[in-house]
Protein backbone atom coordinates (compact mmCIF):
# COMPACT_ATOMS: atom_id res chain seq x y z
CA UNK A 1 0.00 0.00 0.00
CA UNK A 2 1.38 3.40 -0.98
CA UNK A 3 2.02 6.09 1.64
CA UNK A 4 0.31 9.47 1.47
CA UNK A 5 3.48 11.13 0.29
CA UNK A 6 4.02 8.54 -2.47
CA UNK A 7 0.48 9.11 -3.74
CA UNK A 8 1.00 12.86 -3.62
CA UNK A 9 4.35 12.75 -5.43
CA UNK A 10 2.85 10.68 -8.27
CA UNK A 11 -0.12 13.02 -8.76
CA UNK A 12 -0.54 15.31 -11.75
CA UNK A 13 -1.16 18.90 -10.73
CA UNK A 14 -2.60 21.58 -12.97
CA UNK A 15 -1.07 25.07 -13.21
CA UNK A 16 -2.70 27.12 -10.47
CA UNK A 17 -4.18 29.63 -12.93
CA UNK A 18 -6.05 26.76 -14.60
CA UNK A 19 -7.40 25.62 -11.22
CA UNK A 20 -8.45 29.20 -10.43
CA UNK A 21 -10.36 29.52 -13.69
CA UNK A 22 -12.70 26.68 -12.63
CA UNK A 23 -14.25 28.99 -10.03
CA UNK A 24 -14.12 32.22 -12.00
CA UNK A 25 -10.84 33.68 -10.75
CA UNK A 26 -8.77 35.63 -13.26
CA UNK A 27 -5.04 35.12 -13.62
CA UNK A 28 -4.30 38.76 -12.80
CA UNK A 29 -6.11 38.28 -9.47
CA UNK A 30 -3.49 35.76 -8.37
CA UNK A 31 -0.07 36.20 -6.81
CA UNK A 32 1.74 32.97 -7.80
CA UNK A 33 4.05 31.14 -5.41
CA UNK A 34 5.59 28.84 -8.01
CA UNK A 35 3.41 26.88 -10.47
CA UNK A 36 0.97 25.25 -8.06
CA UNK A 37 0.30 27.75 -5.28
CA UNK A 38 -1.01 31.29 -5.30
CA UNK A 39 -2.41 33.96 -3.06
CA UNK A 40 -5.62 35.77 -3.90
CA UNK A 41 -5.08 39.48 -4.32
CA UNK A 42 -7.42 41.89 -2.48
CA UNK A 43 -8.86 42.96 -5.82
CA UNK A 44 -10.36 39.48 -6.26
CA UNK A 45 -12.01 39.58 -2.85
CA UNK A 46 -13.38 43.06 -3.54
CA UNK A 47 -14.71 42.08 -7.00
CA UNK A 48 -16.65 39.20 -5.52
CA UNK A 49 -18.26 41.16 -2.68
CA UNK A 50 -21.66 41.61 -4.36
CA UNK A 51 -21.96 38.05 -5.67
CA UNK A 52 -24.50 35.72 -4.03
CA UNK A 53 -23.26 33.17 -1.50
CA UNK A 54 -23.17 29.48 -2.34
CA UNK A 55 -24.11 26.69 0.03
CA UNK A 56 -21.80 26.06 3.00
CA UNK A 57 -21.15 22.59 4.42
CA UNK A 58 -19.34 22.21 7.76
CA UNK A 59 -17.46 18.95 8.37
CA UNK A 60 -16.76 18.05 11.99
CA UNK A 61 -16.08 14.83 13.91
CA UNK A 62 -16.51 12.75 17.02
CA UNK A 63 -13.90 13.13 19.78
CA UNK A 64 -10.44 12.35 18.34
CA UNK A 65 -8.66 9.16 19.36
CA UNK A 66 -5.33 7.51 18.49
CA UNK A 67 -7.36 5.18 16.23
CA UNK A 68 -8.09 8.08 13.86
CA UNK A 69 -11.15 9.77 12.37
CA UNK A 70 -9.96 11.36 9.11
CA UNK A 71 -11.98 14.58 9.16
CA UNK A 72 -9.80 16.38 6.62
CA UNK A 73 -9.78 13.33 4.34
CA UNK A 74 -13.59 13.25 4.44
CA UNK A 75 -13.76 17.00 3.78
CA UNK A 76 -11.58 16.69 0.68
CA UNK A 77 -13.35 13.55 -0.50
CA UNK A 78 -16.72 15.30 -0.21
CA UNK A 79 -15.44 18.32 -2.16
CA UNK A 80 -14.12 16.08 -4.93
CA UNK A 81 -17.39 14.12 -4.98
CA UNK A 82 -19.50 17.27 -5.32
CA UNK A 83 -17.36 18.31 -8.26
CA UNK A 84 -17.86 14.85 -9.83
CA UNK A 85 -21.61 15.51 -9.56
CA UNK A 86 -21.09 18.62 -11.70
CA UNK A 87 -21.30 21.11 -8.84
CA UNK A 88 -19.10 24.19 -8.85
CA UNK A 89 -17.16 23.40 -5.67
CA UNK A 90 -14.49 24.90 -3.46
CA UNK A 91 -12.89 23.56 -0.30
CA UNK A 92 -11.77 25.79 2.59
CA UNK A 93 -9.22 24.36 5.04
CA UNK A 94 -6.75 25.41 7.71
CA UNK A 95 -2.99 25.40 7.22
CA UNK A 96 -1.02 22.76 9.14
CA UNK A 97 1.16 23.69 12.11
CA UNK A 98 4.72 22.40 12.28
CA UNK A 99 3.93 21.31 15.85
CA UNK A 100 1.76 18.33 14.86
CA UNK A 101 3.65 17.77 11.59
CA UNK A 102 6.89 17.06 13.46
CA UNK A 103 5.20 15.86 16.63
CA UNK A 104 2.51 13.22 16.91
CA UNK A 105 -0.70 14.03 15.04
CA UNK A 106 0.68 14.46 11.53
CA UNK A 107 -0.22 16.91 8.80
CA UNK A 108 -3.48 18.46 7.72
CA UNK A 109 -3.71 17.76 4.00
CA UNK A 110 -5.91 14.66 4.10
CA UNK A 111 -4.80 11.16 3.24
CA UNK A 112 -4.76 8.41 0.63
CA UNK A 113 -6.55 9.56 -2.52
CA UNK A 114 -8.25 12.51 -0.82
CA UNK A 115 -5.44 15.03 -0.36
CA UNK A 116 -4.65 18.66 -1.14
CA UNK A 117 -1.54 19.47 -3.12
CA UNK A 118 1.35 20.17 -3.03
CA UNK A 119 1.20 18.32 0.31
CA UNK A 120 4.90 18.70 1.17
CA UNK A 121 4.83 22.47 0.75
CA UNK A 122 1.54 22.87 2.61
CA UNK A 123 2.71 20.78 5.56
CA UNK A 124 6.02 22.62 5.81
CA UNK A 125 6.65 26.32 5.08
CA UNK A 126 3.85 26.75 2.51
CA UNK A 127 3.62 30.49 1.67
CA UNK A 128 5.17 31.69 4.92
CA UNK A 129 1.96 32.74 6.70
CA UNK A 130 2.85 31.11 10.02
CA UNK A 131 6.36 32.57 9.93
CA UNK A 132 4.84 36.02 9.45
CA UNK A 133 2.48 35.49 12.39
CA UNK A 134 5.37 34.30 14.56
CA UNK A 135 7.44 37.35 13.59
CA UNK A 136 4.60 39.81 14.22
CA UNK A 137 3.87 38.25 17.60
CA UNK A 138 7.49 38.35 18.69
CA UNK A 139 8.00 41.89 17.38
CA UNK A 140 5.25 42.99 19.78
CA UNK A 141 6.93 41.08 22.61
CA UNK A 142 10.28 42.70 21.81
CA UNK A 143 8.77 46.19 21.72
CA UNK A 144 7.01 45.58 25.02
CA UNK A 145 10.23 44.47 26.73
CA UNK A 146 12.09 47.37 25.13
CA UNK A 147 9.49 49.74 26.59
CA UNK A 148 10.17 48.28 30.04
CA UNK A 149 13.92 48.73 29.52
CA UNK A 150 13.70 52.27 28.13
CA UNK A 151 12.05 53.84 31.18
CA UNK A 152 8.59 52.26 31.19
CA UNK A 153 6.59 55.44 30.53
CA UNK A 154 3.34 53.46 30.62
CA UNK A 155 4.17 52.07 34.07
CA UNK A 156 3.65 48.48 32.94
CA UNK A 157 3.89 45.97 35.77
CA UNK A 158 6.44 43.35 34.58
CA UNK A 159 4.57 40.75 36.63
CA UNK A 160 1.34 41.46 34.72
CA UNK A 161 2.47 41.12 31.12
CA UNK A 162 -0.10 38.87 29.40
CA UNK A 163 1.33 38.80 25.88
CA UNK A 164 3.60 35.79 25.30
CA UNK A 165 6.24 34.97 22.74
CA UNK A 166 5.60 32.09 20.33
CA UNK A 167 7.18 29.41 18.17
CA UNK A 168 5.50 27.02 15.72
CA UNK A 169 7.24 23.97 17.12
CA UNK A 170 6.34 21.81 20.10
CA UNK A 171 8.95 22.81 22.71
CA UNK A 172 7.90 22.15 26.31
CA UNK A 173 10.99 23.75 27.88
CA UNK A 174 9.71 27.16 26.74
CA UNK A 175 6.46 26.96 28.71
CA UNK A 176 7.97 28.88 31.62
CA UNK A 177 11.22 30.80 31.17
CA UNK A 178 13.01 33.88 32.50
CA UNK A 179 14.11 36.75 30.26
CA UNK A 180 16.37 39.74 30.86
CA UNK A 181 18.89 37.77 32.94
CA UNK A 182 22.42 39.04 33.42
CA UNK A 183 23.47 42.68 33.16
CA UNK A 184 21.05 45.60 33.22
CA UNK A 185 21.66 46.21 29.50
CA UNK A 186 19.89 42.90 28.81
CA UNK A 187 16.54 44.35 29.85
CA UNK A 188 14.14 43.93 32.73
CA UNK A 189 14.20 40.49 34.31
CA UNK A 190 10.78 38.84 34.35
CA UNK A 191 9.02 35.54 33.87
CA UNK A 192 7.98 34.78 30.29
CA UNK A 193 6.30 31.91 28.46
CA UNK A 194 6.08 30.75 24.87
CA UNK A 195 2.91 29.59 23.12
CA UNK A 196 2.74 27.59 19.94
CA UNK A 197 2.02 29.99 17.06
CA UNK A 198 -1.38 28.49 16.28
CA UNK A 199 -2.56 29.27 19.84
CA UNK A 200 -1.69 32.97 19.68
CA UNK A 201 -4.17 35.80 19.53
CA UNK A 202 -2.55 37.05 16.31
CA UNK A 203 -3.44 33.76 14.61
CA UNK A 204 -7.04 34.20 15.79
CA UNK A 205 -7.04 37.83 14.64
CA UNK A 206 -5.80 36.88 11.17
CA UNK A 207 -8.57 34.29 10.89
CA UNK A 208 -11.37 36.58 12.08
CA UNK A 209 -10.38 39.77 10.22
CA UNK A 210 -12.42 40.93 7.23
CA UNK A 211 -9.65 42.96 5.58
CA UNK A 212 -6.13 44.32 6.05
CA UNK A 213 -7.58 47.46 7.62
CA UNK A 214 -9.67 45.41 10.03
CA UNK A 215 -6.59 43.35 10.84
CA UNK A 216 -4.64 46.47 11.80
CA UNK A 217 -7.39 47.74 14.06
CA UNK A 218 -7.69 44.37 15.79
CA UNK A 219 -3.93 44.20 16.33
CA UNK A 220 -4.03 47.60 18.01
CA UNK A 221 -6.80 46.38 20.32
CA UNK A 222 -4.75 43.51 21.73
CA UNK A 223 -4.50 43.73 25.51
CA UNK A 224 -0.84 43.05 26.29
CA UNK A 225 -0.28 43.99 29.93
CA UNK A 226 -1.56 45.86 32.99
CA UNK A 227 -0.04 48.84 34.78
CA UNK A 228 0.96 48.96 38.44
CA UNK A 229 -2.47 50.52 39.02
CA UNK A 230 -4.25 47.63 37.28
CA UNK A 231 -5.11 49.59 34.12
CA UNK A 232 -5.02 47.70 30.78
CA UNK A 233 -2.27 48.43 28.25
CA UNK A 234 -2.98 47.82 24.56
CA UNK A 235 -0.75 47.09 21.58
CA UNK A 236 -1.61 50.46 20.03
CA UNK A 237 -0.08 52.25 23.04
CA UNK A 238 3.28 50.63 22.23
CA UNK A 239 3.10 51.82 18.62
CA UNK A 240 3.52 48.28 17.29
CA UNK A 241 0.35 47.71 15.26
CA UNK A 242 1.60 49.35 12.05
CA UNK A 243 4.81 47.35 11.81
CA UNK A 244 2.96 44.15 12.72
CA UNK A 245 0.50 44.82 9.91
CA UNK A 246 3.37 45.23 7.46
CA UNK A 247 4.66 41.80 8.48
CA UNK A 248 1.18 40.34 7.94
CA UNK A 249 0.17 42.17 4.74
CA UNK A 250 0.78 39.08 2.59
CA UNK A 251 -0.26 36.53 5.21
CA UNK A 252 -3.78 37.98 5.26
CA UNK A 253 -4.29 36.95 1.61
CA UNK A 254 -5.93 33.49 1.21
CA UNK A 255 -3.89 30.72 -0.43
CA UNK A 256 -5.19 28.74 -3.41
CA UNK A 257 -4.15 25.13 -4.03
CA UNK A 258 -5.84 22.00 -5.45
CA UNK A 259 -6.79 18.45 -4.51
CA UNK A 260 -5.49 15.30 -6.19
CA UNK A 261 -8.57 15.59 -8.43
CA UNK A 262 -7.78 19.28 -9.12
CA UNK A 263 -10.68 20.68 -7.08
CA UNK A 264 -9.86 24.26 -5.97
CA UNK A 265 -9.03 24.63 -2.29
CA UNK A 266 -8.52 27.82 -0.27
CA UNK A 267 -6.26 27.01 2.66
CA UNK A 268 -5.62 29.82 5.11
CA UNK A 269 -4.91 30.24 8.81
CA UNK A 270 -4.72 27.51 11.38
CA UNK A 271 -5.79 28.12 15.00
CA UNK A 272 -5.93 25.00 17.19
CA UNK A 273 -9.48 24.13 18.26
CA UNK A 274 -8.51 22.80 21.69
CA UNK A 275 -6.89 26.17 22.53
CA UNK A 276 -8.20 28.72 20.03
CA UNK A 277 -11.28 28.72 17.76
CA UNK A 278 -10.15 26.06 15.31
CA UNK A 279 -11.34 27.37 11.93
CA UNK A 280 -9.75 28.61 8.72
CA UNK A 281 -9.92 32.32 7.97
CA UNK A 282 -13.16 34.24 7.62
CA UNK A 283 -11.81 35.85 4.44
CA UNK A 284 -11.15 32.44 2.84
CA UNK A 285 -14.54 30.99 3.77
CA UNK A 286 -16.47 34.05 2.59
CA UNK A 287 -14.47 34.23 -0.65
CA UNK A 288 -15.00 30.53 -1.35
CA UNK A 289 -18.76 30.97 -0.93
CA UNK A 290 -18.72 33.74 -3.54
CA UNK A 291 -16.73 31.60 -5.97
CA UNK A 292 -18.54 28.28 -5.65
CA UNK A 293 -22.07 26.90 -5.48
CA UNK A 294 -20.89 24.53 -2.73
CA UNK A 295 -18.12 25.24 -0.22
CA UNK A 296 -16.93 22.46 2.06
CA UNK A 297 -15.06 23.54 5.18
CA UNK A 298 -14.01 21.90 8.43
CA UNK A 299 -13.56 22.76 12.09
CA UNK A 300 -10.79 21.30 14.23
CA UNK A 301 -10.95 18.29 16.57
CA UNK A 302 -14.35 17.08 17.79
CA UNK A 303 -17.69 18.83 17.36
CA UNK A 304 -17.59 19.88 21.03
CA UNK A 305 -14.60 22.09 20.20
CA UNK A 306 -14.22 23.08 16.54
CA UNK A 307 -17.86 22.97 15.52
CA UNK A 308 -19.09 24.79 18.62
CA UNK A 309 -16.53 27.54 18.09
CA UNK A 310 -17.20 27.69 14.36
CA UNK A 311 -20.89 28.18 15.07
CA UNK A 312 -20.75 30.38 18.18
CA UNK A 313 -17.69 32.50 17.29
CA UNK A 314 -16.94 32.43 13.55
CA UNK A 315 -20.56 32.45 12.40
CA UNK A 316 -21.31 35.42 14.68
CA UNK A 317 -18.32 37.30 13.26
CA UNK A 318 -19.20 36.43 9.65
CA UNK A 319 -22.96 36.78 9.82
CA UNK A 320 -23.69 33.36 8.30
CA UNK A 321 -24.26 29.74 9.23
CA UNK A 322 -23.78 26.40 7.43
CA UNK A 323 -26.52 24.96 5.27
CA UNK A 324 -25.61 21.44 6.40
CA UNK A 325 -23.25 19.68 8.80
CA UNK A 326 -21.39 16.38 8.28
CA UNK A 327 -20.20 14.47 11.36
CA UNK A 328 -17.27 12.09 10.78
CA UNK A 329 -16.92 8.84 12.73
CA UNK A 330 -14.99 5.58 12.40
CA UNK A 331 -15.78 2.16 13.78
CA UNK A 332 -12.22 1.99 15.14
CA UNK A 333 -12.54 5.25 17.09
CA UNK A 334 -15.89 4.22 18.52
CA UNK A 335 -14.44 0.90 19.67
CA UNK A 336 -11.58 2.83 21.28
CA UNK A 337 -14.19 4.91 23.13
CA UNK A 338 -15.65 1.60 24.22
CA UNK A 339 -12.42 0.61 25.94
CA UNK A 340 -10.52 -1.26 23.21
CA UNK A 341 -6.75 -0.46 23.00
CA UNK A 342 -5.63 1.16 19.77
CA UNK A 343 -3.72 -1.91 18.59
CA UNK A 344 -6.91 -4.02 18.81
CA UNK A 345 -9.39 -1.64 17.19
CA UNK A 346 -9.10 -3.35 13.78
CA UNK A 347 -10.75 -6.54 15.11
CA UNK A 348 -14.54 -6.79 15.07
CA UNK A 349 -15.96 -6.06 18.53
CA UNK A 350 -19.65 -5.22 18.57
CA UNK A 351 -19.79 -5.07 22.36
CA UNK A 352 -17.14 -2.35 22.48
CA UNK A 353 -18.81 -0.57 19.57
CA UNK A 354 -22.13 -0.58 21.43
CA UNK A 355 -20.42 0.91 24.47
CA UNK A 356 -18.36 3.54 22.65
CA UNK A 357 -21.05 4.69 20.22
CA UNK A 358 -22.42 6.92 22.97
CA UNK A 359 -19.71 9.39 21.95
CA UNK A 360 -21.21 9.61 18.48
CA UNK A 361 -24.65 9.99 20.01
CA UNK A 362 -23.54 12.88 22.20
CA UNK A 363 -22.12 14.75 19.20
CA UNK A 364 -25.28 14.11 17.19
CA UNK A 365 -27.39 15.55 20.01
CA UNK A 366 -25.09 18.56 20.33
CA UNK A 367 -25.26 19.38 16.62
CA UNK A 368 -29.00 18.89 16.51
CA UNK A 369 -29.16 21.54 19.23
CA UNK A 370 -27.89 24.11 16.71
CA UNK A 371 -30.89 23.41 14.46
CA UNK A 372 -28.94 22.47 11.32
CA UNK A 373 -29.49 19.60 8.84
CA UNK A 374 -27.06 16.80 9.71
CA UNK A 375 -25.54 13.65 8.20
CA UNK A 376 -23.04 11.17 9.63
CA UNK A 377 -20.22 9.85 7.44
CA UNK A 378 -18.41 6.66 8.42
CA UNK A 379 -14.82 6.89 7.25
CA UNK A 380 -14.20 3.37 5.95
CA UNK A 381 -11.13 1.41 7.08
CA UNK A 382 -10.09 -1.82 5.36
CA UNK A 383 -10.81 -3.97 8.45
CA UNK A 384 -14.33 -2.63 9.07
CA UNK A 385 -16.94 -5.40 8.98
CA UNK A 386 -20.44 -5.17 7.57
CA UNK A 387 -21.84 -5.96 11.00
CA UNK A 388 -20.05 -2.94 12.49
CA UNK A 389 -21.08 -0.60 9.71
CA UNK A 390 -24.69 -1.79 9.87
CA UNK A 391 -24.70 -1.26 13.64
CA UNK A 392 -23.56 2.37 13.26
CA UNK A 393 -26.10 3.02 10.50
CA UNK A 394 -28.93 1.58 12.58
CA UNK A 395 -27.89 3.58 15.63
CA UNK A 396 -27.86 6.82 13.60
CA UNK A 397 -31.25 5.98 12.07
CA UNK A 398 -32.68 5.69 15.58
CA UNK A 399 -31.26 9.17 16.27
CA UNK A 400 -32.99 10.46 13.13
CA UNK A 401 -29.78 10.93 11.11
CA UNK A 402 -28.63 9.14 7.98
CA UNK A 403 -25.18 7.51 8.15
CA UNK A 404 -23.24 6.94 4.92
CA UNK A 405 -20.02 5.01 4.38
CA UNK A 406 -17.27 6.88 2.54
CA UNK A 407 -14.25 5.26 0.89
CA UNK A 408 -12.62 8.57 -0.01
CA UNK A 409 -9.25 7.47 1.39
CA UNK A 410 -9.06 4.56 -1.06
CA UNK A 411 -11.12 5.94 -3.95
CA UNK A 412 -11.06 9.75 -3.72
CA UNK A 413 -14.20 11.60 -4.77
CA UNK A 414 -15.70 8.43 -6.28
CA UNK A 415 -15.83 6.96 -2.78
CA UNK A 416 -17.98 9.84 -1.44
CA UNK A 417 -20.61 10.21 -4.14
CA UNK A 418 -23.45 8.95 -1.94
CA UNK A 419 -22.43 11.41 0.76
CA UNK A 420 -22.33 14.25 -1.78
CA UNK A 421 -25.85 13.44 -2.95
CA UNK A 422 -27.12 13.44 0.64
CA UNK A 423 -25.38 16.74 1.36
CA UNK A 424 -27.00 18.35 -1.69
CA UNK A 425 -30.38 17.17 -0.38
CA UNK A 426 -29.67 18.48 3.12
CA UNK A 427 -28.63 21.88 1.79
CA UNK A 428 -32.16 22.35 0.46
CA UNK A 429 -33.77 21.49 3.80
CA UNK A 430 -35.04 24.22 6.13
CA UNK A 431 -32.93 25.00 9.20
CA UNK A 432 -33.61 26.65 12.53
CA UNK A 433 -30.11 27.80 13.42
CA UNK A 434 -29.51 28.99 16.97
CA UNK A 435 -26.46 29.81 19.08
CA UNK A 436 -25.56 28.10 22.34
CA UNK A 437 -25.92 31.34 24.31
CA UNK A 438 -26.91 34.98 23.83
CA UNK A 439 -24.09 37.53 23.70
CA UNK A 440 -25.67 39.72 26.35
CA UNK A 441 -25.51 36.95 28.98
CA UNK A 442 -22.83 37.23 31.71
CA UNK A 443 -19.56 35.41 30.93
CA UNK A 444 -20.25 32.76 33.57
CA UNK A 445 -23.64 31.99 32.01
CA UNK A 446 -22.02 31.57 28.59
CA UNK A 447 -19.42 29.21 30.02
CA UNK A 448 -22.08 27.23 31.85
CA UNK A 449 -24.24 27.02 28.71
CA UNK A 450 -21.39 25.40 26.78
CA UNK A 451 -20.45 23.18 29.73
CA UNK A 452 -23.96 21.82 30.21
CA UNK A 453 -25.32 21.82 26.65
CA UNK A 454 -22.16 20.77 24.76
CA UNK A 455 -19.86 19.08 27.30
CA UNK A 456 -22.76 17.46 29.24
CA UNK A 457 -21.39 18.65 32.60
CA UNK A 458 -23.70 19.19 35.56
CA UNK A 459 -22.13 22.58 36.27
CA UNK A 460 -18.93 24.63 36.47
CA UNK A 461 -16.43 25.23 39.27
CA UNK A 462 -14.15 28.27 39.14
CA UNK A 463 -10.79 28.75 40.81
CA UNK A 464 -10.54 31.99 42.83
CA UNK A 465 -8.23 33.43 40.17
CA UNK A 466 -10.67 32.59 37.38
CA UNK A 467 -13.56 34.21 39.26
CA UNK A 468 -11.52 37.34 39.80
CA UNK A 469 -10.41 37.46 36.15
CA UNK A 470 -13.93 37.04 34.78
CA UNK A 471 -15.26 39.82 37.02
CA UNK A 472 -12.39 42.09 35.96
CA UNK A 473 -13.01 41.41 32.25
CA UNK A 474 -16.68 42.28 32.62
CA UNK A 475 -15.71 45.49 34.43
CA UNK A 476 -13.48 46.38 31.45
CA UNK A 477 -16.46 45.98 29.10
CA UNK A 478 -15.67 42.56 27.65
CA UNK A 479 -18.70 40.79 29.07
CA UNK A 480 -20.53 40.93 25.72
CA UNK A 481 -17.92 38.85 23.86
CA UNK A 482 -18.31 35.17 22.97
CA UNK A 483 -16.24 32.67 24.95
CA UNK A 484 -13.57 30.37 23.54
CA UNK A 485 -13.01 27.45 25.90
CA UNK A 486 -9.60 25.76 25.89
CA UNK A 487 -10.15 22.09 26.74
CA UNK A 488 -8.71 18.66 26.04
CA UNK A 489 -9.76 17.34 22.65
CA UNK A 490 -9.79 13.71 23.77
CA UNK A 491 -12.95 13.86 25.86
CA UNK A 492 -16.23 15.74 25.99
CA UNK A 493 -15.13 16.59 29.53
CA UNK A 494 -12.02 18.38 30.80
CA UNK A 495 -10.44 15.01 31.71
CA UNK A 496 -8.81 13.25 28.71
CA UNK A 497 -9.27 9.87 30.38
CA UNK A 498 -13.08 10.11 30.39
CA UNK A 499 -13.97 8.50 27.06
CA UNK A 500 -17.39 7.82 25.56
CA UNK A 501 -20.07 10.27 26.72
CA UNK A 502 -19.28 11.39 30.28
CA UNK A 503 -21.94 13.37 32.07
CA UNK A 504 -22.79 14.57 35.56
CA UNK A 505 -19.26 15.80 36.29
CA UNK A 506 -18.31 19.42 36.98
CA UNK A 507 -16.11 21.40 34.60
CA UNK A 508 -13.23 23.25 36.27
CA UNK A 509 -12.25 26.69 34.96
CA UNK A 510 -8.76 27.61 36.10
CA UNK A 511 -8.03 30.79 34.14
CA UNK A 512 -9.69 33.42 31.95
CA UNK A 513 -8.22 36.13 29.75
CA UNK A 514 -9.41 38.32 26.94
CA UNK A 515 -8.31 38.22 23.31
CA UNK A 516 -9.63 41.73 22.76
CA UNK A 517 -8.34 41.99 19.20
CA UNK A 518 -9.76 38.65 18.15
CA UNK A 519 -13.01 39.45 19.92
CA UNK A 520 -13.50 36.64 22.43
CA UNK A 521 -12.73 35.66 26.02
CA UNK A 522 -10.42 32.66 26.41
CA UNK A 523 -11.35 30.26 29.20
CA UNK A 524 -8.81 27.60 30.20
CA UNK A 525 -9.98 24.34 31.76
CA UNK A 526 -8.30 21.20 33.06
CA UNK A 527 -4.65 20.73 32.15
CA UNK A 528 -4.77 21.98 28.56
CA UNK A 529 -1.43 23.44 27.44
CA UNK A 530 -0.78 26.36 25.09
CA UNK A 531 2.67 24.96 24.24
CA UNK A 532 2.56 21.22 23.50
CA UNK A 533 5.55 18.91 23.91
CA UNK A 534 7.02 16.25 21.64
CA UNK A 535 6.34 12.52 22.17
CA UNK A 536 9.03 9.92 22.91
CA UNK A 537 9.51 9.36 19.18
CA UNK A 538 8.41 12.49 17.31
CA UNK A 539 7.43 12.26 13.67
CA UNK A 540 10.45 14.45 12.88
CA UNK A 541 12.70 11.41 13.38
CA UNK A 542 11.30 9.86 10.18
CA UNK A 543 11.45 12.94 7.93
CA UNK A 544 14.39 13.31 5.55
CA UNK A 545 15.42 14.10 1.98
CA UNK A 546 16.55 11.18 -0.23
CA UNK A 547 17.66 11.81 -3.81
CA UNK A 548 16.06 15.25 -3.64
CA UNK A 549 12.66 13.94 -2.50
CA UNK A 550 11.07 14.38 0.92
CA UNK A 551 10.45 11.04 2.66
CA UNK A 552 8.79 10.07 5.93
CA UNK A 553 6.19 12.85 5.77
CA UNK A 554 3.14 10.57 6.38
Helical content band? 25-40%
Distance between the termini: 13 Å
Major sheet characteristics: 12 strands, mixed
Shape, per Cα inertia axes: globular
Number of helices: 20
What integer value in Å does the Rg equal? 23 Å
Which structural class do you get from the secondary structure elements? alpha/beta
Residues in β-strands, percent: 15-25%
Low-pLDDT segments: none
Strand tally: 25
Mean pLDDT: 95
Task: Describe this entry's structure for a reader.
It is a single chain. This protein has 554 residues and is α/β, with parallel strands linked by helices. Strands 1, 2, 3, 4, 5, 6, 14, 15, 16, 17, 18 and 19 form a twelve-stranded mixed β-sheet that branches. Strands 20-22-23-21 form a four-stranded mixed β-sheet. The longest helix is centred in the first third of the chain and has 21 residues, at 129-149.
Compact overview of the structure:
The chain is an alpha/beta fold and about 550 residues long. Helix content is about 35%, strand content about 20%.
What layout of secondary structure does this protein have?
Elements: H1 4-10, H2 16-21, E1 30-32, E2 38-40, H3 42-47, E3 55-61, H4 71-84, E4 89-93, H5 98-102, E5 110-111, E6 114-117, H6 119-123, H7 129-149, E7 156-161, E8 165-167, E9 177-179, E10 190-192, E11 194-196, H8 201-208, H9 212-220, E12 223-227, E13 232-234, H10 241-248, E14 255-259, E15 264-267, H11 282-291, E16 294-298, H12 303-318, E17 324-329, H13 331-337, H14 350-356, H15 358-368, E18 374-379, H16 386-398, E19 402-406, H17 408-411, H18 417-427, H19 443-453, E20 459-462, H20 464-475, E21 483-486, E22 506-515, E23 520-525, E24 544-546, E25 549-551
Parallel strand pairs: 3-16, 3-17, 4-15, 4-16, 8-11, 17-18, 18-19, 20-22, 21-23
Antiparallel strand pairs: 1-2, 2-14, 5-6, 6-14, 7-12, 9-10, 12-13, 14-15, 22-23, 24-25
Helix pairs in contact: 4-18, 7-10, 9-10, 13-14
Amino acid sequence: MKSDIQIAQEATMLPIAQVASQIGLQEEELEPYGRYKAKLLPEAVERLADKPDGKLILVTAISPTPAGEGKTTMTIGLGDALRRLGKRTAIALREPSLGPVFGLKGGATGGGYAQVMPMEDINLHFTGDFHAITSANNLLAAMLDNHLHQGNALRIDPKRVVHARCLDVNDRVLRDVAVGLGEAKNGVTRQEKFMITVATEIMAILCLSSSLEDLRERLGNMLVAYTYDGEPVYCRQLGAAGAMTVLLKDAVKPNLVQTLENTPCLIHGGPFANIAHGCNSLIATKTARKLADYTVTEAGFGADLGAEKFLDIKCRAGGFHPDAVVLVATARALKYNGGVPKEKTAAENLDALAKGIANLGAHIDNLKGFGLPLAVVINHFYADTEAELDYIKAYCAEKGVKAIVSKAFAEGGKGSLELAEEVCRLCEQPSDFRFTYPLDAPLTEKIEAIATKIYHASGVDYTPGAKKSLAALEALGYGNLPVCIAKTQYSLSDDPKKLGAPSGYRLTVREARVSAGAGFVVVLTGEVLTMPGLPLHPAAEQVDVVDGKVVGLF
